[in-house]
Amino acid sequence: MTISYTDALRYARDKKVVLPEEFYLLDLNARQYATTVSKLASLDQIRTVINLSNKAIESGSTFHEFKNAIQAEGIELSPHHLENIFRTNIQSAYAHGIWTQQQENKANRPYLRYSSLTDSRVRPSHLALNNIVRHIDDSFWYTHYPPNGYLCRCGVDAITEAQAKKQGITIDDELPGVQPDSGWTTGPASYGKQLNEVLDQKIADADPRLADELIKVRDEMLISQEANEAIVKAFEPMSDTSKQVNEAIVDRVLESKKDVEPSAIRMLTEFIKDDEQALTDLLKTSVVKNDKPIVDWMKRSFDSLMLIAKNLKSKITGNNIKGFESFNLQKGNVIGIQTPTLFKTSAEAGKSITILDMRGQALDLSKINGLNGALLAPDLNLEVVNITGDEVVLRKTNELATRLFVANNALFNLY
After folding, report:
1. Cα-atom radius of gyration of the chain, to the nearest Å?
2. How far apart are CA 158 and CA 172, in angstroms?
3. CA torsion, ordered 131, 180, 194, 155, to nearest 10 deg
4. Torsion angle (degrees, nearest 10) of CA 127, 131, 137, 139
5. What DSSP state is assigned to residue 276?
6. Strands (E), 219-373
7. What DSSP designation does 339 have?
8. CA atoms within 13 A on the CB side of 36
9. 218-234 pLDDT, tens digit each
10. Least confident span in 94-98, 157-161, 268-272, 319-323
11. Which among 263, 258, 268, 367 is positioned nearest to 310, based on CA atoms?
C-alpha cells in the first residue's frame, strides 16, 4: 500500500518518530534522479511519465492515482511496468534521504553494512552483497548502494567502527563480482558522480534528430538538479527553535488535511527566522538572474502553503518588514517585494506599519499554531499611501515597481 506524504507524517506522529531534516526535502531529492523510461515509443511519452512520476512523489499520490494519470494521457503500459516506475522513484527518493543522513552522522558511524532480505524472493546477486561492511566513503557504495534494481528491498545500516571491526570489514578480495541489475544506473551514493548512463546510451543509439531532442531533455534535467542542489545548500541546519517551528507547521499541515510540498515546510521554517539570510540571498540572486527552476520552486512552494494558511484579512499590521527599515519611504512610491518577506510585530520600537488590500496576498502565521505575523507573497507591489512620524500605510497595488534596490539582504523594487 502506498500512503500520501501527509499520511506518512501522521504515522510518524502517532508512533512518536522523530523525522530527519532530509524527510522535509523529499520532493527535491526525488527530482535529482534523472530517470528515463524504457518501453515508451516517443520522447513526449518519456517526458510525460517522468513528470507524472515526480509529481506523484511530491504530492503523495497513490499508485492508483498515478496509473489513472498515465492512462488519461493515452499512454498504454502494463500495470506491472507502471508499478516498477512508481515504486522505484519512491525508493530512490527515500534512499537519498537515508544516504544524506548517514553522511551527516559519519563521524559517529563511519561504516556501512549492506542488508538484503534472505527469503525466497531475493535476487541471488543482491543476496551475495548481504553483510558486506565497508567504510562510508569507500567507492564500493557509489556503485552498490541500494536500491540496486527495480523493486529492490535491500537496505544499508550505518554502524560504528567498533561494530565494523567486530563483524569484520570486508576486504577487496572478498567482494563478490556482482553488479546492480541490468539497466539500473545510479543509486543515491553515486548521484553527482556520473551522468544518467541510460539516457546517454539512448542519445548514442538515436538518429541525429532524436538525439538532439534527448540532449535537450538531459540538459533540462541537469539544470533542474543544479537548482535543487542550490536550494538544499541554502537551507541552514535546524536549531532547536527551528525544529519547534517546523513541528508547528507540520501540525498545521496535518490538521488542514492538505498535501504540501515537503520542501515548502522547510522554506517556511527558514523564512520565519529573524536571522535567515542564505535562502533569501539565493532567491534574490535567482530573481535577478531569472533562474527559472529556483524561482518556480519558490512560487510553487509559497502557493502550496497558501492552501493551509492564506491570509483572509484585508488589513494587516505590524512594525517590522525584514529589510524595510533602512529605506527612506516617500508617499506615492511603489515598492515591489520580489521574495517571500517576513512581516511581524517586533519587541523593538518602530513605526507602525499597516498594509491594506492584503486578502489572499500573504501567509497568516497566526494560523500556524499562533506564530507571529505574516509572510508576504513574492511579486507583491505596495504603494506608500500615507506616512507620518510614527506610522506608514501601504496598499497592495497592481502598479509595478520598476527600479531594483536591496536592503539588508531582502530584495525590493522601487517605483
Report:
1. 24
2. 20
3. -40
4. -30
5. -
6. 316-318, 320-321, 334-337, 341-344, 352-356, 362-364
7. S
8. 22
9. 677 778 778 888 998 89
10. 94-98
11. 367
CA angle 369, 411, 378 (to 5 degrees): 50
Q: CA-to-CA distance for 259 and 6, rounded, in angstroms?
A: 6
Phi-psi region of 79 (alpha: psi -120 to 50; beta: other; left: phi over 0): alpha
Q: What is the pLDDT of residue 165?
A: 96
Q: In this structure, is the dihedral angle defined by the CA atoms of residues 62, 67, 68 and 72, taken in order, positive or negative?
A: positive
CA distance 118 to 135: 23
Alpha carbon distances (Å) from 185 to 47, 176, 196, 248, 280: 18, 19, 7, 39, 35
Distance CA 258, CA 276 (A): 26
Helix (H, G, I), strand (E, B) or coil at 344: strand
Q: At what angle do helices 292-309 and 278-289 cross, to 10 degrees?
A: 120
Determine how β-strand 352-356 pairs with β-strand 362-364. Answer: unpaired
How far apart, in whole angstroms, are the C-alpha atoms of residue 241 and residue 140? 38
- Taking only the tens place, the pLDDT of each residue in 153-190 is 888 999 999 999 999 999 999 999 888 776 565 566 55
Q: In what order do the strands lie in the sheet with 374-376?
A: 320-321, 341-344, 374-376, 362-364
- Bridge partners (DSSP) listed for residue 383: 334, 395
Task: Write down the domain spans for the chain.
Answer: 1-103, 105-194, 231-309, 316-414
Contact residues for 37 (Cβ-Cβ < 8 A; gap 6+): 45, 46, 49, 50, 85
Cβ atoms within 10 Å of 171's Cβ, excluding its own: 8
Residue 403 has pLDDT above 70, yes or no: no
CB 181 within 8 A of CB 150: yes
Q: Is 151 exposed, middle or buried (0-12, 13-18, 19+ CB in 10 A)?
A: middle
3-state per-residue secondary structure call for 167-230: HCCCCHHHCCCCCCCCCCCCCHHHECCECCHHHHHHHHHCCHHHHHHHHHHHHHHHHHHHHHHH
CB contact at 8 A, 364 and 313: yes
Q: Whole-prediction pTM value?
A: 0.60
The distance between the two most distant Cα atoms of the chain, rounded to a whole number of Å, is 79
